[in-house]
Design brief:
The complex is a heterodimer of chains A (561) and B (242). By secondary structure, chain A is an alpha+beta fold. In chain A, 58% of the residues lie in helices and 16% in strands. Classes of the chains: A alpha+beta (561), B alpha/beta (242).
C-alpha cells in the first residue's frame, strides 16, 4: 500500500514535468497524427526522455526498480506508431539494462514489447479511421493495464531465480499497474487538452479570416483607392479588434481607422521608417514596442505602441502598398492577429490583382470599340467610291447625295466619345449606311425598316444596330445571287424593347463558340450587357438557307423616370 | 479587235468599267457582254469565247477565284482581276504578276493593263490560286441555277450540246454544266469511265460486265453510265477487282 502512494507521488512529479513541457512548442507535433518524419522524431525524443525519467523516478525494491517507465514507451507507440514505439521502448530498455539488477534483461525486453504494443494499438485505430480514440485517456489507461500485466508475466518468465522474481512481482505488480495506468490516462489527457486548445485557436483564426474574406469580396473590384480601402480597413478593424488599421499604397496613407485617426489622415505621405523599409524590401516588419522600438512618426504623444507592417505584393513580387495593424501602448499583439495580418495581406493582394485585371478588361472593351469605330471596312469604302464614280456619269445629283450620306456615315463613326444614343439617331446612321449599300446592290437588295415610334427616344449603346445591319449584308444578302431582303423591326414586348435584324440568306450560321469570338457581334452583346445587365443582350438565330436573325432585348425606360 | 467579258455582281461597277474600257482609245477592245455573277459568267464564257475577262473577286456563291478554278487551262481567256480591296488576293496577284485593277478604276492604269494584255503572248498559270478542289459545281437548269456539291454528283457526261450532270437529289437530275469534263476530273473526285463520262466512285452500286470487255455502271439512284474498254481496266485496278 505504501508503495502505491510512493509511486503515485513520483508520478505526480513526472506529470508536472509533462504538463510544463506541454506548454512548449515541442509538444505541438504530438497533438497531431500527421505521420510526418518530424512528428515521429518528436514523439521518439519526448517519450524516450519520459521513459528514461520513469526509470530514474523509480523506487528501488529488492534489487529491482518499481517505476513508471512503461508510460513513455506505450505513449510513444500510441502517438508515433509501431516503429516509434519499438524505438522508444528499446531506448528505455537499454537504459534500464545499463542499470543492472536481476530483472535487467526482463525489463529491457518488456519495455520494448510495451512500446510495440502501443504502436500496434495505434495501427489498429488508424486503419479503422478512429483517430480520435487514440487520444482517449481511457484507452491509454486500458493499454497500460495490459502492458503492465504483460511486463509482469515477462519478468516471471525471464528473470532468474524464479522465487525471487515471484516475490518481486507480488510486491510491485499492483502498485505499478495502478500507477502506470493512471499516469498514462492523465498524460494523454494533458495532450488532449493541448490539442483542443490548439484546434479552438485554429478554428477562431479560420472563422475570422473567412469572415473578413467574405466581407471584403469585391470591394476592391473598382480599384485600389481611398474610398475602397477605407471600407476594407473598417472591416478588418471590426473583425480583429486591433487598436488601429491602416492601408497605404507606395506613397501615402489610403485609409486609417482606430486609435490615432486624428493625426493619421488619409492622403498623408508615408513617414514611418518601418513602412518605408517594408515597401523597399517587400518584407514583413513587426515593431512590437519591446524588441523593435515603435514610435509614431507623425505625433510624439500618439497612443499607438506597436505595429505590424505587411507588404501587399503582386504576382511578380513587387510591392503595391502595405497593410498596417497597430496596438496601443500597454497592450500586447496577439499572435492570432499577427498571423491573421499576413493572411489578410495575401487576400488583399489577390483582390487588388483581380481588380486590376477587371480594369484592364474594361479598357480592352473600350479599345475594341474604338477599333470597331475606326475600322471602316476598306472594302466598303472603295466599293462605295466606285459606285459613286459610276453614278456621277449617269446622275450627278444622286451622286452628290450619296457623297453626303457617305460623309455622314464617316462623321458618325468618328464620334468616339458618345456612349449611348437614341434609337432615332442610330436609325439615321443606318440610313446613311444603307443608302450607299442600296446603291451598290441596287438590283438585288431591299431593306424594310419598321420601328415602333415610341421606341425612338430610347437609348442604346452606340453602334448597336449598324453592325447588325452591316453583318446581315456582308455575311447574308451579299452572298445571294438575287432578291436579298433585310427587315429591321423594333417593338415593345412585356416592357422590353425588342430590336431585330433579319436577312433572308441564312448563311451566317455560327456555333456559339464562333459567335463568342466574332469581334463585332461580341462587342454589341457586351455593350448591351454592360448597360442593361447580364439578362439582356444579343441572340443570333439561324435557319440555314432561310434566314439569319439578330435579336436584341433590353428593358424599356419610360419617359417619366 | 479584242473581245471582253465583264463579270461583277454590282450593276454600277459593271457600267463604270464598261464605260471606261470603251472611253480609252489606246487598245481596240469591245465589251461583248456583262454578267452579274460567276455562274452567268461561265455560261457566257462558253458561248462567246471572249479574249479577256474582267473578273470581280467578291461575288455571291462563287467568287472570282473559285470561278477561275473552274476554267479549263487550255481554253482559258486572259484574265484581269478587279477588286476594291482584298489584302490576300492582292498579295497573290503581286507575287505572281497577274493582271489586276483596283476599284475605283483609274483610266491610266486600265490603259496600261490593256496594252500589256494586247502585247503579251504568255499564258498565265493560275495554279497558285486554283489548286484547291472545287466545293460547288454551278449548273444551269431551266430558269434556275443549281449549285451542287461534288459529292452530290453521280455522273457527268458530255454530248454535242455540252456537259451534263446527273445528281443524286431528286430535283437535280440532268443539269447542264459550264465546266468541262477535264476540269471536273481534275478538280473533283469524279473518275473517268468513258471518253465522255465521269462517275463518282462513291455512287457506284454495280459494275455490270458486258461482251467485248465493255461494261456499264449502275449508280445508287439508278443512272447508267457506259464503261469503255480502256477505262474498265483503270476502274478494276482502282477497286482491286481481279
Amino acid at each position: 500500500m505504501e508503495l502505491i502512494f510512493s509511486l503515485l507521488q513520483q508520478l505526480s512529479v513526472y506529470l508536472v514535468i509533462a504538463y510544463l513541457l506541454s506548454k512548449t512548442p515541442l509538444f505541438m507535433p504530438l497533438t497531431t497524427l500527421s505521420g510526418h518524419f518530424s512528428q515521429r522524431l518528436a514523439c521518439y525524443v519526448v517519450f524516450s526522455l519520459f521513459c528514461i525519467m520513469g526509470t530514474y523516478f523509480g523506487l528501488a525494491i529488492e534489487n529491482a526498480i518499481a517505476n513508471t517507465r512503461a508510460i513513455g514507451a506505450v505513449m510513444g507507440g500510441l502517438l508515433g506508431g509501431p516503429f516509434v514505439g519499438f524505438a522508444v521502448g528499446f531506448t528505455g530498455g537499454i537504459h534500464r539494462y545499463s542499470m543492472g539488477g536481476f530483472t535487467d534483461v526482463a525489463c529491457a525486453i518488456s519495455t520494448t514489447a510495451e512500446g510495440v504494443l502501443g504502436g500496434l494499438v495505434h495501427l489498429y485505430f488508424m486503419r479503422r479511421g478512429l483517430v480520435e480514440k487514440i487520444f482517449n485517456p481511457l484507452i491509454a489507461f486500458a493499454v497500460l493495464l495490459v502492458a503492465e500485466v504483460m511486463q509482469m508475466s515477462i519478468i516471471l518468465i525471464v528473470a532468474q531465480p524464479f522465487e525471487q522474481s515471484f516475490e518481486l512481482v507480488k510486491t510491485i505488480a499492483l502498485p505499478m499497474i495502478i500507477a502506470n495506468s493512471v499516469g498514462a490516462a492523465l498524460f494523454m489527457s494533458i495532450i488532449q487538452d493541448r490539442k483542443t486548445i490548439y484546434e479552438k485557436y485554429s478554428a477562431s483564426f479560420s472563422s475570422k479570416a473567412l469572415t473578413i474574406a467574405e466581407r471584403t469580396v469585391g470591394i476592391l473590384s473598382s480599384g485600389f483607392n481611398e474610398k475602397n480601402t477605407q471600407k476594407i480597413a473598417e472591416i478588418i478593424y471590426e473583425e480583429t479588434g486591433v487598436g488601429a488599421v491602416s492601408i497605404t499604397d507606395r506613397e501615402k496613407i489610403l485609409a486609417f481607422i482606430g486609435i490615432g485617426d486624428d493625426h493619421h489622415l488619409p492622403g498623408t505621405l508615408i513617414s514611418s521608417l518601418h513602412t518605408k523599409q517594408a515597401i523597399e524590401n517587400g518584407e514583413l516588419i513587426f515593431a512590437d514596442g519591446y524588441e523593435v522600438a515603435y514610435q509614431c512618426s507623425i505625433k510624439s504623444n500618439c497612443k499607438l505602441g506597436a505595429a505590424l507592417i505587411i507588404p501587399l505584393l503582386d504576382s511578380e513580387g513587387s510591392v503595391l502598398g502595405t497593410i498596417k495593424l497597430y496596438e496601443p501602448k500597454q497592450k500586447l499583439f496577439s499572435s492570432l492577429n499577427q498571423s491573421l495580418g499576413e493572411g489578410l495581406a495575401k487576400l488583399l493582394s489577390n483582390q487588388i490583382l483581380s481588380s486590376r485585371y477587371l480594369e484592364q478588361q474594361t479598357l480592352l472593351t473600350q479599345a475594341e470599340l474604338r477599333l470597331l469605330q475606326a475600322q471602316v471596312n476598306p472594302h466598303f469604302l472603295f466599293n462605295a467610291l466606285n459606285t459613286i464614280s459610276a453614278v456621277i456619269r449617269r446622275d450627278p445629283d444622286r451622286a452628290r447625295q450619296l457623297i453626303q450620306h457617305l460623309s455622314q456615315f464617316f462623321r458618325r463613326n468618328l464620334k468616339h466619345n458618345i456612349e449611348s444614343v437614341k434609337i432615332e439617331d442610330e436609325l439615321q446612321h443606318i440610313h446613311a449606311y444603307l443608302e450607299i449599300e442600296l446603291a451598290r446592290f441596287s438590283d438585288r437588295l431591299k431593306v424594310n425598316i419598321n420601328i415602333d415610334e415610341q421606341l425612338l427616344a430610347q437609348y442604346v449603346p452606340t453602334f448597336t444596330l449598324q453592325p447588325l445591319v452591316e453583318n446581315a449584308i456582308k455575311h447574308g444578302t451579299s452572298t445571294l445571287l438575287e432578291n436579298g431582303v433585310i427587315d429591321v423591326t423594333g417593338y415593345l414586348e412585356n416592357g422590353q424593347v425588342v430590336l431585330k435584324v433579319i436577312d433572308n440568306a441564312g448563311t451566317y450560321c455560327l456555333s456559339d463558340k464562333e459567335l463568342a469570338t466574332g469581334l463585332g457581334l461580341q462587342i454589341v452583346d457586351k455593350r448591351i450587357k454592360n448597360s442593361f445587365g447580364e439578362n439582356f443582350g444579343l441572340t443570333m438565330l439561324c435557319q440555314p438557307g432561310i434566314s439569319t436573325r439578330a435579336e436584341i432585348k433590353f428593358p424599356f425606360v419610360s419617359e417619366n423616370t | 479587235m479584242l473581245t471582253a467579258l465583264v463579270i461583277d455582281d454590282e450593276q454600277f461597277a459593271r457600267e463604270e468599267l464598261t464605260a471606261l474600257i470603251e472611253e480609252q482609245c489606246e487598245v481596240a477592245i469591245e465589251v461583248i457582254a456583262t454578267c452579274n455573277n460567276a455562274i452567268e459568267g461561265l455560261k457566257k464564257l462558253n458561248q462567246l469565247k471572249p479574249d479577256v475577262i474582267f473578273l470581280d473577286i467578291q461575288m455571291p456563291q462563287i467568287t472570282g477565284i473559285e470561278m477561275l478554278a473552274m476554267l479549263d487551262p487550255d481554253t482559258m481567256p486572259k484574265v484581269v482581276f478587279v477588286t476594291a480591296y482584298d489584302e490576300y488576293a492582292l498579295q497573290a496577284f503581286e507575287d505572281n504578276a497577274f493582271d489586276y485593277i483596283l476599284k475605283p478604276v483609274e483610266p491610266n492604269r486600265l490603259e496600261k493593263t490593256l496594252k500589256r494584255i494586247q502585247a503579251s503572248q504568255k499564258v498565265d498559270d493560275y495554279q497558285v490560286l486554283t489548286d484547291k478542289p472545287l466545293s460547288l459545281i454551278p449548273c444551269a437548269g431551266f430558269n434556275r441555277y443549281v449549285l451542287l456539291k461534288p459529292s452530290e454528283i453521280e455522273v457527268a457526261y458530255s454530248d454535242p450540246s455540252g456537259v451534263h450532270i446527273i445528281g443524286n437529289q431528286p430535283n437535280s437530275h440532268e443539269n447542264s454544266c459550264s465546266l468541262s469534263l477535264k476540269v471536273l476530273e481534275d478538280k473533283t473526285e469524279l473518275l473517268r469511265c468513258h471518253r465522255q463520262y465521269l462517275i463518282n466512285p462513291n455512287a457506284i452500286r454495280e459494275i455490270r460486265l458486258l461482251d467485248n470487255a465493255l461494261a456499264e455502271i449502275i449508280t445508287s439512284s439508278g443512272a447508267v453510265a457506259p464503261v469503255s474498254r480502256r477505262y474498265l481496266k483503270v476502274l478494276k485496278d482502282r477497286f482491286q477487282l481481279g
